Amino acid sequence: MESNLLELLELVDSRQDELVDLLSLLIRYKTPAPPARNTEEVQQFIADFLNKKGFMIDKWDVYPGDPNVVGVLKGKRSDEYQSLIVNGHVDVAEVSETEEWEVDPFTPIVKDGVVIGRGAADMKGGMAGALFAIQLMHEAGIDLPGDLIFQSVIGEEVGEAGTLECCKRGYKADFALVVDTSNLQIQGQGGVITGWITVKSKQTHHDATRKNMIHAGGQLFGASAIEKMMKVIQGLQDLERHWSVMKSYPGYDPGTNTINPAVIEGGRHAAFIADECRLWITVHFYPNETHEQVAKEIEEHIQLVAKADPWLRENPPTFEWGGSSMIVDRGEIFPSLEVDPEHQAVKTLSGCHESTLYEQPVIGVSPTVTDGGWFGDAGIPAAIYGPGELKHAHSINEQVSIQQLVDYTKVVLRFMFEWCHTKK
Ligand SMILES: [Zn+2]
């Protein structure tokens, strides 16, 4: 078997043009999110691709025009051997009209050993590598004893939980590999949760009453919701600073856990005292924290801030956390993911990386967030491992190195093969 595998790995080198073609083809499907709702065609392509390799296909609309695809290749001895989920998203970051690309972002080119095009790094490169590895195994007639489940999901770029939908639909495995941008490092991640904080007055006042509510003897118990939100923001800054001093996690610069006041909306008209103000915040937290826990910390702290203010005490701020889409309900959650270096699958993946590339992989943390957190949330051990560098993701002239893509495809092929040949 081992000699078979080595021959297969050599095929990745000799057939790398096909790998590059597959990546170019994926890039040519225009799938930016926003605007989203444009993945039907690429998902049908992936469904057909997997179907021809013996996978049973489950395809369903998460949103109209944005279906998820899950392919299941049932192992011939499922009960005894380890199963694997390979997960990636097909949506890519948006391209704005002012961006000056060297090429049309959706007409990829090969130049100086890299493929340039939107999604090359994030993450059609990872998708192409994993799909090509599946193709080579299929052509070689390899029957994996453990189950292999390929999840091609939508919406990641706008916080739409395509992967959560797969988990909710009941897909699970002994390990999940998220093939998103990691520069061939094995990564966990911190998490992100967004939230809305609302300060609201029970009464509405004409702006001429302001003197009565702010000056001595005015006798009007009222306030501008915008001005009271300033206290909330100050409270958030105090908590953020406290977190940066007191919390840390290996692999992260201190202070990576931030609370960003991202968007503020308030007041109805210049003839009124602002009776409502809403603040949209983005909270980044560490892999060993949960979104529920950080949301609770923020609420508790801000309610104490409110208690110290006579008006806010009577009109406490309210909180709405998370959401299922940045473009539909203006909110998102990316749960965190801790990678256990001692987990058998992580050791196997490290071993595959080492024996293919003759170097030990870095096991660390992603400075960004991916769908990996949903597996952590669902209790499925997981790691992020993909080609491409984060500095290229979402950038002008987004690119991936062909050599790295080839290396990646070899490692991921080997990992699928070895993990699904590992006894439970
Ligand atoms: Zn991504």
From TrEMBL:
Name of one Pfam family that matches: M20_dimer
InterPro entries reported in the protein's UniProt record: ArgE/DapE, Bact_exopeptidase_dim_dom, Peptidase_M20, Peptidase_M20_dimer, Peptidase_M20A
A molecular-function term among this protein's GO annotations: hydrolase activity
Named cofactor requirement(s): Zn(2+); Co(2+)
UniProt family annotation: Belongs to the peptidase M20A family.
Keyword Disulfide bond: no
Domain Peptidase M20 dimerisation per the UniProt entry, residue ranges: 210-307
Keyword field: Cobalt, Hydrolase, Metal-binding, Zinc
Entries under SUPFAM superfamilies matching the protein: Bacterial exopeptidase dimerisation domain, Zn-dependent exopeptidases
Protein name, as recorded: Acetylornithine deacetylase
NCBIfam families according to UniProt: DapE-ArgE (TIGR01910), PRK08596.1 (NF006370)
